[in-house]
Amino acid sequence: xxxxxxxxxxxxxxxxxxxxxxxxxxxxxxxxxxxxxxxxxxxxxxxxxxxxxxxxxxxxxxxxxxxxxxxxxxxxxxxxxxxxxxxxxxxxxxxxxxxxxxxxxxxxxxxxxxxxxxxxxxxxxxxxxxxxxxxxxxxxxxxxxxxxxxxxxxxxxxxxxxxxxxxxxxxxxxxxxxxxxxxxxxxxxxxxxxxxxxxxxxxxxxxxxxxxxxxxxxxxxxxxxxxxxxxxxxxxxxxxxxxxxxxxxxxxxxxxxxxxxxxxxxxxxxxxxxxxxxxxxxxxxxxxxxxxxx
Length: 294
Description:
Helix content is 52%, strand content 1%. The chain has 294 residues and is mostly helical.
């Protein structure tokens, strides 16, 4: 499924070509929505228009190679993975990455979540090292998934950090399918799955040769929980996860257009519009196309 020529998609891409790229319309640009806007434009073949968000990301990069979510939130740098992914795609397409990509790659390979000893109070393996939301804290599922995706886009899918990140993502899958945001079991209670982290995890695990029934259970969880009423952001991540595993629902195009109309009526969030655009690109989406094994 590709919706790049539909009126709503053209309108979305026109909006994403212009700053600011914030979490809500007319808010100052932030790293995550800016990186996703660049990716959506690159995926649609609008390489020239992607240069502005790529330049913004390059200007936000520190001398250590990382990028904070906001200028005033320097203890966190998880959007470095998204910015590196966008720059890597630009480079693969023959354009200018703008970002200092070797420096961003070096930061990704050295940044690490804090290990904790395993405990009967929680169900996941705390010794596995992924990536944290905040530097100096424990590894979480979403920043690890984004970092795995970024390293795959940099042709580092076999790097030991990528491999351990994949093991962490599998370890955090719930026994009944799907993912919570970080843990699996806490104080004897199995946590509930959510669509957004499940979609991101399945996106990062696509193409992996993993014989674990929780992968199929997680795909089934998404298939049973996506609908026309799903929030736009969760719908986008859920569809990206399913599409990466060739399991896209037939009603996806209708759901995405309905989600676009709700987003425009509400706040026209650049972050949400970028995700809807990426989900509409199907298997040509850069998040899928540029992370496939060679």
